Amino acid sequence: MASWIELNAQNFLHNIHEYRKFLGPHTKLGCVLKGNAYGHGFQQTLPLFHQHTDMIFVIEARDAFAVRNYEKAHGLTSRRVVVLGSLSPEELIACAVQEIEVVIIDTSFERYFGACAEAAGTPLKVHLHMDTGLSREGFLPEHFAQELEFLNAPLAAQHVDVVGFMTHFSNVEDVTEQTYAEKQLQLFEEGYQSCIQVLNLQKPPERHTAQSAASFILPSARYHLARVGIGLYGLWPSGPTRLSTRVLYPENAPRLLPTLSWRTSSQQVKVLPAGSYIGYGCTYRAAHEIRIALLPVGYFDGYPREFSNRGYVLVQGQRCPILGRVMMNHTIVDVSHAVSNNDPLVATLLGTDGHEQLTAEQLAEWSNTINYEIVTRIGPHLERRMV
Ligand SMILES: *Cc1c(COP(=O)(O)O)cnc(C)c1O
Question: Which atom of ligand 1 is nearest to the CA of 372?
Answer without folding.
Answer: 8
